[in-house]
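Treating backbone geometry as a discrete language has practical consequences that deserve illustration. The sequence in question and its structure tokens are set out directly beneath this paragraph.
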Amino acid sequence: MKRFTFIWLFWIFILFTSIVPVKNLYATAFMVRPSRLVLVGTPGELISTTVGISNNDSQAARAKIQIAVLDQSTDGKSRVVPSEELDELAGKLRSCAEFITLENESIVIPGLQTFNLSLEIQLPNNARGTYYCAMIVASDPDRDQPGLAVVVNFLVPITVEVEGVAQRKDISISNIEMFHRNEFTDNRSGKLIPASDWISLSLENAGIISAEVKGDVTIMRQSGKRWKRVTEVSSETVNMLPKTSWPFLIKIPKALPSGNYQVRGTLHVDGRRMRPLEKIIDYRGDPNITELVEDVVLMIQPAVLEVEGVQGAKRNVRLNIQNPSDQNISFVIDKKIPTVLQSVAIGDLLGKSFASTQWLEIKPDKFHLRGGAERSLLIHCVFPEDSLEHPFYYSTIGIHGYSQNGDVLTNEEVVLIAKNISTEGSPKLQANGMTISIVENDIYSITARFGNVGNTHLLPELSAFLGDVGDTKMLQRINMTEAKNMIIPMEIPTYSGEVDLSRIDDGYYRIHINAKYSGGVAKNELTISVVNSEAGKSVKVMDN
């Protein structure tokens, strides 16, 4: 049976641009959907799917299609492997490029129409784990047409997850380093990057399956006989490909003087917290920095801002900030679209359509607070005059505090929810798949995803258990990590838990993970086969 699963992420990565020197500038207006393709199959299966390439210009346009080998850079972003590196990396990367057959390598798309490009992926009979590659869609302008032809390349990462015998997620931090980097010019943006301090987490995925990873780092400095917290930093969540290793670079938001620091790095793999790695580092920082500035934890009320209105309404809401420290702090307040809405789409619906950032005005957006002082901010919200598409809209208010020397003292965020009272919300949570992997011996990790495909925020309650395949008996409860914050529309959080199969007999079983919310219950289910052997339990994912 042919099966496929799409994750619709609205980000288009411009791989490179070439310019043909003619008289005027013109470029093809392409849109590629989905912009990331995640497929699920079984060993030996032929997977068929399509990618839509839309021409948003009124004139016909040509495009060239190719499949490329993919790798990861030090920030976790996708990187196309240049041809001169292919021989060196042969056998090291788990590429699915050779599995793919393209229906067309060159296409012509009529004006304002969409071409559905067919792909076939033939998985080998011995396929296991995760494979990855990329499809590049390149505009192919007519060189005889007058003008400067901008050739734009769209990168569509392709991931193939092969279901079968459960594999081990073998991702770890092997080392932690701190380093100071002097002022430099970024090669991509051309911007001047000021001198800064960095943490490097040496990550390695020795397994054959991918996973979402996030790094948390706590930096401490010795005070007397105790280690005192200086600051904490976190990385973004990225998908780490199998058989890759790279230094995960995290910028420290403040300048640190030279000295001994205790650094604790904690890795979260698919939501599961791994054992931290600690290291004492004799750090050599900027010699001009002599004073250690510790973080300040603010007292902010309320934790979530809420405002109600209809189209054209003008509303005010207040945010109170208290400085509990004895330091004077200079504040800069900003607003932005929540991260989970910035790069996502479901069909033609963009995540940014749920943003209220452009409606807001913050007064004041810069101010000073003495130690122990507090003040109230006014946030003026003007609902747009035209019709409102959704019942709820979201923004993130950033609160950034600095010392007199410009050192970062605090970075906090508050969510603002703008409610359109002229319509009701329709909560809807959707199961987005579940996986099982080996932790150790007979302990297995369960990972489940639930996507908010409704038009309102929610906070689900999770329950999970292992039962017989006939769903007549519950054999074991599974404790799952809970969401700490509400899930806003289009967000797809990951939950994890562990199941002990040491006392489970051979046979077929079903794992249930239910997410209860105000609109009902979303159910994730996974059928597995358990077989005992001298090496321990062997678990195979069955076709649900």
In short: Residues 86-89 form the longest helix (4 residues). The chain is about 0% helix and 55% strand. The radius of gyration is 26 Å. The first strand starts at residue 13 and ends at 20.
